Amino acid sequence: MTASAAALSAPFREPFGRLVPDGSVVTVPGVRVGGAQRTDDGWLSGTTVIVPPPGTVTGVDVRGGGPAGHETDVLAPGTHSPGADAVVLTGGSAWGLASVLGVQQGLAADGRGFPAPMLPGSYVPIVPAAAVYDLGRGNGTLLHPDADMGLAAYRSACPVGATEDGPAPVAADGSRGGIGIMRRAAVAEAPVRGSVGGGTGAFIGRGLLRGGLGSVCLRTPSGHLVAAIVVANPMGDVIEPSGRLHAAGVLARTGAQLPDVPSDWIDQALTLDATAADAVVPQRNTTIAAIVTDARLDAAQTTRLAQSAQAGLARAVHPSHTLFDGDTVFAMATGGADAHIDATSIVGLNCAAADALSLAIVDAALTARPHLRSAVAGTAEHEEENGTGSEVPTADATEHAPQAPRPAALRELAPDLATAWEALRTTGT
Predict the structure, then answer these.
(1) How far is it, in rounded angstroms, from Cα 188 to Cα 225?
(2) Backbone region of residue 196 per phi and psi (left: phi > 0; alpha: psi in -120 to 50; beta: other values)
């Protein structure tokens, strides 16, 4: 074996990355995440926005047969703009892409985006987006994120006046300069886990389980951070019929051993909602995600990072990338790390991206809340869902109302698994 071959084999003799304790996509310096959602008045949908530092290089890979996306072609290597000012992961299918307008409005107001030629003080923010199908999962009506919700999600990440420095300089060829310094006002804890934001209306396994938003962060042997954030809404399952997580092999590679789901987990899920498996047809799915690293990568390398991460989706969800999923993964490289990039570290980044996405999907499945929605218009979900303590409607009020599907939460079916995952995620590996 040559010296170079030996170096390239190094990442395969050790974990591709170690879990950062309590890590998420906002562990990467300069990255902000905001979210907005509604679970009242028949709603069950929301939007998540990831705002990277200026100068971040962005790529995307679309594998599903039914994607709902916006501004993805502009991210291809060789196009005019190799970066994005924000990335949106939203509910609402193609209708939910309207939330992008609100994010653009917020960015433009903060002076971020491509300077509009001959229009001093005007900006054109580049905001790629992908959407999952969650239409009708509240009370069966067409309710979806819009521009107002997009702006609310952006402002939860970047309050007015939070960005004190202007955007990174833009060269004549349209490329952004180096990483700008982003000094921000205090921002509330980022909504990166659970039934929030773009994961509010997510289901897993044709509606058998509640889906949601999940995020983890790994530190690679080269010292780089690789984080994933995902809206898990797949047609496929995250649990094997034996009760083993599909991602168990990824967990084992990090040295973690988590308990299986009890063997009767399917029966328990169907007992909680006997109609769940039949209520959601295959066309209502998609897993969308973003990988964020502090490595300094070019457009081609960043696009490859997104492509590599798709392997992690396939390891955590079976089946994946089907005709009825719109599986889409973005990748962002902020370039903020001082760690050296060579062939070995690039291979390690690709491997870590796949593992991070697998683990983020596990996180989404295990932090999703029980779906206790009544489908009666004007009533809110259980207080655990919306945090307001809204009154739960009486049996008389709901007797004749059409009921939305009520998938079970995996953390209810497998509390030992949920507890073990939380301990692992909190302490790292």
Answers:
(1) 22
(2) beta
Looking at the structure of the chain, the number of domains it has is: 1
Range of the structural domain that residue 334 is part of: 12-168+189-427
The enclosing domain of 374 has a CATH number of 3.60.70.12
Specify the pLDDT at position 166: 38
Name the pTM for this structure. 0.84
Tell whether 162 is covered by a domain: yes
Could you check whether the bond before residue 319 is cis, i.e. omega within 30 degrees of 0? yes
- Distance between CA atoms of 100 and 98, rounded to whole angstroms? 5
Question: Residues 146-159: what's their mean pLDDT?
Answer: 95
Is the separation of the CB atoms in 402 and 376 below 8 Å?
A: no
- Residues 69-80 pLDDT 10s: 999 989 988 887
Q: How far apart are CA 381 and CA 371, in angstroms?
A: 8
Is 265 part of any domain? yes
Question: Strand 114-115 relative to strand 87-90: parallel, antiparallel, unpaired?
Answer: unpaired
182 belongs to a structural domain: no
In 234-335, DSSP assigns E strands to 286-293, 328-333
Q: List, for residues 343-370, the tens digit of each pLDDT value.
A: 989 999 999 999 999 999 999 999 998 8
The residues pairing with 212 across neighbouring beta strands, listed in sequence order, are 232
